Amino acid sequence: MVRRVLRCAALTIVALAAACSSERKTTGDGPHKWTSAEQKIVDDYMAKEPIKRLQVGAGGMNLKGWLNTDIEPQPGEVFLDAGAPFPFPDKSFKYVYAEQVIEHLTYEQAQVFVRESVRVLEPGGRIRLATPDLLLLIALFNADKTPIQKQVLAFQVEQNRLPTTVLPETAWFNRINHAWGHQFLYDPQSLRTTLEAGGFKSVTPVKLGESDAPDLQNIEMHWHVGGKEIDEATSQFVEATRP
């Protein structure tokens, strides 16, 4: 999960090329042991925070009050491979959050991620995900484009220096499918059934920044590069509950 100044995992449709200079890693090369500094972060967090919240794929964009993790941890983070068993006991957290992460996992790795998220959540705990919406990407091919769709494509052509000898939507669709370590993009139904198959219930589409759980409100950071309208026009946001 390579991140530079801005999180590569959090840059789906907006400014991936500007922020990431290499593909993002999704899984490690084998078992990983926390350093003493990482272990202290975990121990201190679990001892002091009354509400346990796990961010997967923080990439330097750490959330206050959360245990921030990444496969290539930056200061204040600890190692976590999103596509492998999590090194936490069952029912350890109330919330799990991953912004623009799941699309960087193969589908098999994503299934592990979902099952592990269920396992480490307490009953009634909740996961929140933000990820590209395949149907919104396909809708960019509509002949009658909305103003925001035109804005998305103009932004991507300029930001990512897309070729102008093909349709901008064709250039961008190929780019988003193959660049930056992306492995698997989801339409809303497929994301819902994947979460349900892993053990989640009440999979609910939500809006950017909105939640009936205060701890899950306004935690997205992806939109800071391209703006909320572009993020909402290209990404989906969902929450699901562990029974």
Largest beta sheet: what is the strand line-up?
Answer: 3-2-1-4-5-7-6
Give the N-terminus to C-terminus distance in angstroms: 30 Å
Would you state the CATH class?
Answer: Alpha Beta
Following the backbone from N to C, one meets helices and strands in this order, namely: HHEEEEHEHHHHEHHE
Helix content: 25-40%
- Tell me about the biggest sheet? 7 strands, mixed
In total, the number of domains comes to 1
Quaternary form: single chain
Number of helices: 9
Helix and strand content put the structural class at: alpha/beta
In the CATH hierarchy, the architecture is: 3-Layer(aba) Sandwich
According to CATH, the fold-level topology is Rossmann fold
What is the overall silhouette? globular
- Average pLDDT, rounded to a whole number, is 89
- Residue stretches low in confidence (pLDDT < 50, at least 5 long) are 1-22
Radius of gyration: 17 Å
User: Strand-residue fraction?
Assistant: 15-25%
| Number of extended strands | 7
How would you describe this structure to a colleague?
The protein is globular. The longest helix is centred in the middle third of the chain and has 14 residues, at 107-120. The chain is 34% helix and 17% strand. The protein is built from 9 helices and 7 strands. Mean pLDDT is 89; it is low at 1-22. It has a single domain, classed as Rossmann fold (3-Layer(aba) Sandwich), CATH 3.40.50. Strand 4, helix 3 (107-120) and strand 5 form a beta-alpha-beta unit. It has 243 residues and is α/β, with parallel strands linked by helices. Strands 3-2-1-4-5-7-6 form a 7-stranded mixed sheet.
